[in-house]
Design goal:
Radius of gyration of chain A: 21 Å
Shape of chain A: globular
CATH topology of chain B: MetI-like fold
Shape of chain B: globular
Order of helices and strands of chain A: HHHHHHHHHH
Radius of gyration of chain B: 21 Å
Largest sheet of chain A: none
Largest sheet of chain B: none
CATH architecture of chain A: Orthogonal Bundle
Helix content of chain A: over 70%
Number of helices of chain A: 10
Oligomer: heterodimer
Number of strands of chain A: 0
CATH topology of chain A: MetI-like fold
Strand content of chain A: under 5%
CATH architecture of chain B: Orthogonal Bundle
Structural class of chain B: mainly alpha
Order of helices and strands of chain B: HHHHHHHH
CATH superfamily of chain B: MetI-like
Number of strands of chain B: 0
Number of domains of chain B: 1
Helix content of chain B: over 70%
Distance between the termini of chain A: 55 Å
Strand content of chain B: under 5%
Chain lengths: 227, 216
């Protein structure tokens, strides 16, 4: 059987698709910022002094990393609603993505923290720096700089995974694509267009991360070498 | 008061079984394709190598959900009649192949170059070098990340629910539509996934310590 591709019909819906892509980007950037905060906090808890906090953070990381995002989204959106906590679609989507990516961030940042040589900590203690100052100036900057490429890949994956939130009808790119394809009956073409859009978005995420990295890590900006 | 009836629980467990079947199919299909990709990226002529790299970049830059929609709607457009299981297995295999291809390429390249040179000096041909020198060492390097990636495969089969394949999540959705107990149903499903994935995670970490590739 021959099948003639016709991109005109789905492309006529470009304004909606563009709004969808913007929503996907907004969703991803919000989840990235919040998830990064959560992840760093959990990484500090896991490497910190309190055994209870370390165990709690460890349990969180294992629970999230060994269950599918789709199920996490359903628990947060449908599950919480059924016990009286009603969240909007967008809030639920962001929350699920944050909780999910926080666990992966925690593992990556923990690896970064553990790669900081002990002697640096001892040197900082000799300079009578407080715990907060040691973290802020000695541990975290090189730790995060070293794992920045891994974090970049993780957050690009997060952006791609945000397509899963279409399953609770968050109006992002994939959900819009589902609507466009049922309007135009041009499913293959629609999803090819959207796949190309996701490729561009993942490129954009990488550029964003490169930009943030070169602002945040002056050492790399000056020397241009990985740590 | 029972939360789920006997039949509903059985239905969920059947979905659990299909999740395992789909995971195995995706691993087998993606493994074969990924192995070819890895070999192509390391040993093939430059145009082929570039082609394989482009394929991997394309697949890794596209959400799995979109890949599944493309296979689900695209294969029938090509005149093939497919049921959701075939579409899901095919889409997942394509997705898995891109990631396993990259993991295995890295493992092949991690075998010290001198090994290959020594084999060359012994006048072994390409097939012999691969089978007796490179692969036995590369497999050892590749095992921990491959087992780790199996966790991703198992979790990603949940997306097959979106194209109507009745695996565990889809089964859960159907039960939820009848019982209106999403919290319990989906937490139970999460627990079943955890039971499947956590042992794999632990195994992967243990292998990693055992082989300790990074500090050899």
């Amino acid at each position: 059987m021959r099948y003639d591709l016709d991109f005109a019909a789905p492309l006529a819906h470009w304004p909606e698709l563009l709004v969808g892509a913007a929503t996907t980007l907004g969703l991803s950037v919000t989840a990235t910022v919040l998830g990064f905060g959560l992840g760093v906090a959990c990484a500090l808890a896991r490497t910190g002094r309190s055994a209870a906090a370390a165990r709690a953070a460890g349990a969180y990381v294992e629970a999230i990393r060994n269950t599918p995002l789709l199920v996490q989204i359903f628990i947060i959106y449908f599950g919480l609603a059924s016990v009286g906590i009603k969240l909007g679609v967008f809030t639920a989507a962001v929350m699920a993505l944050v909780v999910n990516v926080g666990a992966y961030t925690a593992e990556i940042v923990r690896a970064g923290i553990e790669s900081v040589p002990r002697s640096q900590l001892e040197a900082a203690q000799c300079l009578a720096l407080g715990r907060w100052h040691v973290l802020r100036h000695v541990v975290l900057p090189p730790a995060i700089e070293r794992v920045w490429p891994a974090l970049t890949s993780q957050y690009v994956l997060l952006m791609l995974a945000s397509s899963i939130t279409s399953q609770i009808s968050t109006e992002e790119l994939t959900a819009i694509a589902n609507r466009v394809q049922s309007d135009t009956f041009r499913s293959v073409e629609t999803y090819l267009i959207v796949a190309a859009a996701y490729l561009l978005l993942s490129l954009l995420m990488r550029v964003l991360f490169w930009g943030v990295g070169s602002v945040a890590f002056p050492r790399r900006r000056r020397l241009g070498t990985p740590l | 008061m029972t939360v789920l009836t006997h039949q509903q629980l059985l239905f969920l467990l059947r979905g659990f079984g299909w999740t395992i079947v789909l995971s195995l199919l995706a691993f087998a299909g993606g493994g074969v394709l990924g192995f070819v990709l890895a070999l192509t990226r390391v040993y093939a002529a430059r145009p082929l190598r570039t082609l394989a790299m482009l394929y991997i970049k394309l697949i890794q830059g596209t959400p799995l959900l979109i890949l599944l929609f493309l296979t689900y709607f695209g294969l029938p457009a090509l005149g093939l009649i497919v049921d959701p299981l075939v579409a899901a297995a095919f889409g997942l295999s394509v997705y898995v192949s891109a990631y396993l291809g990259e993991i295995w390429r890295g493992s092949l390249e991690a075998v010290p170059r001198t090994q290959e040179e020594a084999a060359l000096c012994l006048a072994l041909n390409w097939r012999q070098r691969l089978a007796h020198v490179i692969l036995p060492q590369a497999v050892k390097i590749a095992t921990p990340p491959t087992v780790g990636f199996m966790v991703q495969i198992v979790k990603n089969t949940s997306l097959a629910s979106a194209i109507g394949f009745v695996e565990m999540v889809r089964a859960g959705q159907m039960i939820n539509n009848a019982t209106f107990r999403p919290f319990i149903v989906f937490v139970l499903i999460a627990a079943l996934y955890f039971a499947l994935c956590y042992p794999l995670s632990v195994w992967s970490r243990r292998l990693e310590r055992q082989f300790d590739v990074a500090h050899r």
